[in-house]
Amino acid sequence: MPVVLLSSAVSSLYLVSQALYRRFGGRFLVNLLGKWTTDAAVTGGGHSVPVGGIAYYMTAPPSMASAAANPFRAAFYVMVVLTACAVLSKA
């Protein structure tokens, strides 16, 4: 159950972050929440992916090579997921 709640919260973060970035893309607080791109070379299609901000660090690294290239992102993601699941399971 905690994983489902965390997934729902992260999905809400993505939705709000994408909407704000499309509307107010150059502002500091919006960029802090998340920067997004729809570049076909990066995404492999028309999907948006976070490339900066909190949304970027709340996304799992796509591969082990990516995790090795950016160990802070991988460690932050694991720490947040484990902490949030522990807190939500206590509630």
TrEMBL record:
Main location: plastid
Gene3D superfamilies: SecY subunit domain
Membrane topology: Multi-pass membrane protein
One example of a Gene Ontology biological process annotation: protein transport
GO cellular component: chloroplast thylakoid membrane
InterPro entries: SecY/SEC61-alpha, SecY_dom_sf
Cell compartment(s), UniProt: Plastid, Chloroplast thylakoid membrane
Record-given protein name: Uncharacterized protein
Organism annotation: Oryza meyeriana var. granulata
